[in-house]
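Summary: Need help interpreting a holo structure output

Steps to reproduce:
1. Submit the protein chain below together with the SMILES for magnesium ion.
2. Request a joint structure prediction with the ligand placed.
3. Inspect the structure token block that comes back.

Expected: a single structure record containing both the chain and the bound molecule.
Actual: see attached output.

Input attached:
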Amino acid sequence: MSAKFAALRVTDPAVFGRVAVLMGGTSAEREVSLDSGRGVLEALRSRGVDAFAVDGIPALIEQILAGRKAGAGGVDRVFNILHGNKGGGEDGVLQGVLEALGVPYTGSDVLGSALAMDKIRTKQVWIGSGLPTPRFKRIAKGDDVHAAAREIGLPIIIKPSCEGSSVGVSRVLADADIDQAVALAARYPGEMLMEQMIVGDELTVAVLIDGDGYTALPSIRIVPKGEWYDYHAKYIAEDTQYLCPGLDGAAEDEIRRLAMEAFVAAGCKGWGRVDFMRDRDGKFYLIEVNTAPGMTSHSLVPKAARQIGIEYDELCWRVLEATVIAGGGAA
Ligand SMILES: Nc1ncnc2c1ncn2[C@@H]1O[C@H](COP(=O)(O)OP(=O)(O)O)[C@@H](O)[C@H]1O
Ligand SMILES: [Mg+2]
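--- attached output ---
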């Protein structure tokens, strides 16, 4: 099965003007972002785009304003490859600033970015849209977490609602381990959630703008060597296996359809990556959506794009192109 993408709408790199590739920043995911950013910068430049690196949001704002005062050398659009929350670039704060300044940017707008950063509220939207996601309970300090676990039924996952990279996430198999898992998740700001643990396969599906609509790229099945896809398996281990496409036949069609529906329901734009679990009976569950996914040479979205013949450079071009297509990106 292969997706056929619409022809490129922009062929002249001059149309993009001066493009700030926004990377780095101050979040815990700084190093990954710098790595992604270097890749994007090189790809855009190799295609003739007047792209340059900017490290972090304050530097970007300065550069936009300085360019306006000088009447030249400013920023015509932003390729946002910051990862993380709390003003880290992926949570709607940056998007709001750029809206206020009238500078177009890649990816989701204020609403989609802020919603996707909050796992609890993303799940509420999915449930409201009739989309499948593991049973869960919002938990706060002082709650009877043991009663909550009984209601959901062990095994469970306990995690902060607004973090990434698997930090603060615990798998809980026995009642005796609940308190420790809650204490770990509580170290991070914001709310926590307790979720039914889905035992089975982990999959992810990238969604990319395609003409006037969106197309889901082939799924990737993640097979970590250890028990689950923790921080170590994501960034350190060399032995995590990535199978693309992750499924075949009707199951592959279904996961792609669900990814598109989940992306649209969450108000996301441009591009993103939807994470799933699939239980032993083949039922899919939505876990989260990432609005500025990794773009390092070994990241998942470039892998899925390559599978259908979209090379890294073209992927970057298409993500950027969304900023000049009405309704495709924010403006
Ligand atoms: N409900 C669940 N059932 C099974 N595994 C889960 C569940 N939720 C999360 N996980 C595991 O924990 C990892 C991190 O959780 P996730 O919700 O994706 O947070 P993060 O934003 O940190 O990536 C996932 O990649 C998956 O391996
Ligand atoms: Mg995740």
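--- end attachment ---

Reviewer comment: Residues 272 and 291 are 5 Å apart (CA to CA). The pocket of adenosine-5'-diphosphate (ligand 1) is lined by residues 134, 157, 159, 163-166, 169, 195-198, 202, 228-229, 275, 277, 287-288 (CB under 6 Å).
Status: needs-info
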